[in-house]
Design a protein that fits this description.
It is an enzyme of class 3 (hydrolase). The protein is α/β, with parallel strands linked by helices. The protein is built from four helices and 17 strands.
Length: about 280
C-alpha cells in the first residue's frame, strides 16, 4: 500500500518502529549497472534485512531517488515488490524521480538532466499520525535539477502542521537542509535551506529529528538543536568528506528509527554485511 490512512497504530507497547530506505536508483532493465553495481541486486539484499524484521516494523519510509529511470513500469515493479513485503510504506520523490539523467559516460557535472513529472504515487505534504507522534513528509525535488527546493506552498503547509499540534514530530525529506562537508555534494543540497529553518524556527521544541536521503551515506548533523540524519543508499555509497564525486566501498544499508511514547527516539544504521 503506497497511500496510508491519516493515522497508523503501533505494534509495540513502547515505541513506533520505522525503517527508512533511500536512493535505490533502480533501472528499467534490472541487469543494468551504475558505477559497476547492480542496484536491483543491492536493493534486494537490503530488502532481505527488512523482511527479517517484518513482524517488528510499523512503517517503511522511502526518502527519494527510487528510480534512476523514472518510468511508470519501473515504479510498478518497485511498488509490487514492496507490497509483497507486507509492511505499510510511503514514498517521497528525490531529484532522480523527476529528472532523467543522460550521458552517464561523462563526468557528473557534464551530464544532461531532463525534467520529468513525478509518479503520482509519490507524496508531498503528507502527515501521518501515530499513537504518540506526527510524521511529516515533504517533497524537495526540482524537475530537471540535482539540487533541492521546498516550495512556499509546502512550507506554509509545514508551518500549519507544526502550529496545529503539540505532539513530538519528525520530518522526512530527500535533500539535506544542512551542509555535509563534501564539497561536490554541498552544491546539491536544499537551496532554500535558510527559508526552511526560518519557517520551522518557532516550532523547534516539537521537531525531534529530520531524516533525509540524497547523500548516500550515514550522517548526523545538529542545526539549531535539531538532529538531521542521513541515510545510506540501498545502492552505491558516497565516501564522506570528499571534494569530488567519490564512491565508498562500504556496504548498502538502511536506517532504523524507534519513536518512543515518551517523546524520545533512537536510530541507527544496519548494513548488508552486518547481522
Amino acid at each position: 500500500m503506497t497511500l496510508l490512512p491519516s493515522s497508523i497504530s503501533q505494534h509495540h507497547a513502547d515505541y513506533f518502529s520505522i525503517i527508512e530506505l533511500s536512493d535505490l536508483h533502480l533501472f528499467d532493465d534490472p541487469n543494468k549497472l551504475m558505477n559497476g553495481v547492480n542496484t536491483a541486486d543491492t536493493f534486494a539484499s537490503v530488502l532481505s534485512l527488512v523482511r527479517q524484521q517484518r513482524d517488528n516494523v510499523d512503517l517503511l519510509v522511502l526518502t527519494g531517488d527510487l528510480c534512476h529511470e523514472p518510468t511508470p513500469q519501473n515504479y510498478d515493479r518497485l511498488f509490487a515488490t514492496l507490497n509483497d513485503v507486507d509492511i505499510p510504506f510511503i514514498a517521497i520523490p528525490g531529484n532522480h524521480d523527476v529528472t532523467l539523467e543522460l550521458d552517464s559516460h561523462l563526468p557528473f557535472t557534464q551530464r544532461r538532466h531532463l525534467p520529468v513529472k513525478a509518479d503520482t504515487r509519490l507524496q508531498n505534504c503528507y502527515s501521518i499520525d501515530t499513537d504518540y507522534w506526527d510524521l511529516l513528509l515533504l517533497d524537495s525535488s526540482c524537475e530537471g535539477h540535482s539540487h533541492g527546493k521546498i516550495d512556499e506552498q509546502s512550507l506554509r503547509w509545514l508551518a500549519q502542521q507544526l502550529a496545529n499540534a503539540n505532539r513530538p514530530c519528525v520530518i522526512f525529506c530527500h535533500h539535506p537542509m544542512v551542509l555535509i562537508d563534501s564539497a561536490w555534494l554541498d552544491e546539491y543540497t536544499l537551496i532554500n535551506a535558510d527559508r526552511f529553518w526560518e519557517v520551522v524556527m518557532p516550532y523547534l521544541d516539537r521537531i525531534k529529528a529530520i531524516f533525509v536521503g540524497h547523500i548516500h551515506q550515514e550522517m548526523h548533523k545538529i542545526n539549531y538543536g535539531i538532529s538531521v540524519f542521513g541515510c545510506p543508499s540501498t545502492s552505491i555509497q558516497f565516501k564522506p568528506l570528499c571534494k569530488d564525486y567519490t564512491i565508498d566501498e562500504i556496504a548498502p544499508g538502511l536506517r532504523w528509527i524507534n519513536l518512543y511514547n515518551n517523546g524520545l527516539l533512537a536510530t541507527g544504521i544496519k548494513r548488508t554485511d552486518t547481522i
